Amino acid sequence: MTVPATPLAEAAELADPWPVLAALRESGPVRRLDPRLRLPVWVVARYEDVLAALSDPRLSNDPHHAVALRSLLRGDFLSRSMIGTDPPEHTRLRRLVSKAFTARRVEALRPRVQQITDALLDRITPRGTAELVGEFALPLPITVIGELLGVPAADRERFRAWTDEVLDQPFDPQEDLARVTAARERMHGYLADLVQAKRARPADDLLTDLVEATDEGERLDAQELLAMTFLLLVAGYVTTVNLIGNGTLALLRSPDQLDRLRADPSLVPQAVEELLRFDGPVNPGLTRYAVEDLEIGGVTIPRGDVVLLAVAAADRDPDRFPDPDSLDVGAAGPGHLAFGHGVHYCLGAPLARLEGQIAFTQLLARLPDLALAVDEDALQWSAGGVLRGLKELPVTFTPTPVT
Ligand code: HEM
């Protein structure tokens, strides 16, 4: 049987991917060919189904359950991270770092996040124009997570280039395996050097804590340590960039909501939740692997198959959110699935919220008359199958001198 290609990969690069997501939601779970994995995947897009699936132990986070992916994963140290494992391994790995990301620990970072945000905006405000992704949305979270882990500032640019290579998943296992393997090896070499440097010169940072946990006992082995470092560094910034970029554009497209937020900054925490729901970084969604046959929305998904839980579609489900395609910065409460759900619920959610809240508060306070500097059609989106974000966001505003 031929499986039709999923329109999702192309849709995520469109300014308006929502009609495609809505059609998938309305059709119920369907089997589609994923052009990135070159495999058939089941697309699940209704809120209720996605929510239930995210806490269903029959759907694993471990890609080794997908027979077709095993050869790709051989020797891949990255698949040893908490996001690619199930309990009990997952529980052990997550427990090692969860303390560093509690709401209380994250709150203590507020003054430093504020300082980094202010310093970035000081460079922008006197000019009247800026490219907000490269000059603000990206350097803010990469600096925060880099400092938290203890990655030297000088390495962050190189690290970013490798991340792009590693996250650029193979389109064709035959042709692209060598390129992807080389990128992973470069990343592995860099992380191993970084860990070695921490061992030689321990510091007051999260990476030193993890190195000590590895050296002291059996709690984390050497490969797991590298996988954990990679996951925290990457998950710590690639998503938040898109929260700030996509969110700013969403506000610019809804001037009434932008004005409302400017007039009442106490709405910012709610606005961040609404922006996560409305055009969150994870789009189309999260991948899972069926460990046994199971039924979702009346459809049987066989063991070993790949499932895409389209959280971006779920977060616009009219059965869950009234008027889901309108932005309402005063909308009550979270309930969205932008941070996932269940045991893998985003570990960094408190940090992402803190960064988002400070970023939007300061952007609105310090860039008066914020407007797009280019025609909306000229904006380009990048989509790698999991995340969707703007490549660049050129803006204009009324310049103000730094005091
Ligand atoms: C997991 C989204 C920021 C660290 C996740 C998951 C989602 C997500 C949807 C669940 C993955 C799954 O179920 O397979 C986001 C969004 C962010 C963000 C939208 C920003 C707006 C961060 C930050 C960190 C972080 C700042 C900091 C280190 C993690 C980690 C996991 C994770 C470690 C894996 C948790 C586990 O497997 O138990 N994130 N994230 N994230 N996130 Fe985030």
Automatic annotation (TrEMBL):
Pfam families the record matches: p450 (PF00067)
Keyword field contains Membrane: no
Q: Which organism is it from?
A: Geodermatophilus sabuli
Name the PROSITE patterns on file.
CYTOCHROME_P450 (PS00086)
Q: Which family does it belong to?
A: Belongs to the cytochrome P450 family.
Keyword Membrane belongs to the record: no
Signal peptide span = none
Q: Which keywords does this chain's UniProt record carry?
A: Heme, Iron, Metal-binding, Monooxygenase, Oxidoreductase
Q: What is this protein called?
A: Cytochrome P450
* Gene Ontology terms for molecular function: heme binding; iron ion binding; monooxygenase activity; oxidoreductase activity, acting on paired donors, with incorporation or reduction of molecular oxygen
